[in-house]
């Protein structure tokens, strides 16, 4: 039960995620400043939180520092501290070197370490405690992503009055892969503390349901799982897909700005005005299929099916998880490939690949989207992939071709993209050529249909659908006997 002190600062809507939507920047003279940070989840939830006047619980991005709660841009921010060791074990270790590769179909081998798991449990407990303190009686708490899978159960035990949602932003793997996890029962049990468990794709929810049946034998009917509780009651937990999206209107608004359009022209000009600009935008991550993309592009140049006078590939690889060894190796491999391809095929006037290991402001990203004739999304596994949706949202000119991997959640919705299997290098090459040569009428037809899809399911729709499901469950369930 909340005591008087916490009741005074109680919020009816609480979001819990590993990272806060703000970055800490050391100001002049030791002053503390906060700056909104870009990224998939922040982009998705910021508008919702501002409207709901809620609190956001998460880590501020610097280890070994404690910060008092504060307001930022109309959102109450409640920082949770992490020590340097917890950063290594809970975050870089268990979250990004165990769960991330495991949940992305073991594209890279996951590491299993018992100390990492213990740290994961400890940190999840700290986040759950912070949420229990911040939430008002009967509040809605929405827990985000794979770093915090134990929080729903911990929170339910402390605060049975709460309505608890969980959304998994990354895939949920098939049981044959999931079952490798030494703590597979604890993680599922942690998630089942929620009232609603959201996934990106129907296939992810299906994999989760199968894991529940295999490990616990709980009955499932469609998206409802019957979870027996210690008091003999049965809770009905909903596990289904809620495909995440973007704030499509705000991307289009940026794309329509004259300065952003001028910048798009300038980008093409500075590339030597090639006929075709191809673009990749990814965090530098082994799930994104950057190597497959470069290999296919390199072979097209080698075979003379594309020439550097005609085509330039712009690859933005934003720095990510740079202290994790797999990511360092990946960076070396990609930069070796880019260096070789440019060495082999660039001329003084035309670069084969413009490779950028930087993060950019949103305006620059949008200018890049506008400058690109072909957008390459070749992920080997991706929960959704927001870049694909952002590209489409920006193309109010109904032009541009989206080449999209079947292994992204986005491919379930964006059926009018040029769909590819990135493992099939020959197929990928043919699809790149198809995209480059696609007649204008067909480009327009496909883009119109893609744009309609992204407009119809934007991020406001995503969060509204999730929260309606969640509060619907919360209203119906308490006190209603099973059956
Ligand atoms: C996870 C899941 C799921 C990237 N570089 C810059 C920049 N970005 C922005 C993009 C986009 C976001 O970051 C990346 O989102 P993605 O969906 O593409 O991928 P993940 O980061 O892996 O996100 C993913 C997502 O969560 C949401 O549920 O779709 O499957 O893996 O918005 O534009 N933004 C700016 N500068 C950059 O350099 N401003």
From TrEMBL:
The lineage of its organism: Bacteria, Bacillati, Actinomycetota, Actinomycetes, Micrococcales. Keywords: Glycosyltransferase, Transferase. This is Alpha,alpha-trehalose-phosphate synthase. The keyword Transferase applies. It is an enzyme of class 2 (transferase). It comes from Agromyces tardus. GO terms for molecular function: alpha,alpha-trehalose-phosphate synthase (UDP-forming) activity; phosphatase activity. Belongs to the glycosyltransferase 20 family. It comes from the Bacteria. Pathway: Glycan biosynthesis; trehalose biosynthesis. GO terms for biological process: trehalose biosynthetic process. Its EC number is 2.4.1.15. It catalyses: D-glucose 6-phosphate + UDP-alpha-D-glucose = alpha,alpha-trehalose 6-phosphate + UDP + H(+).
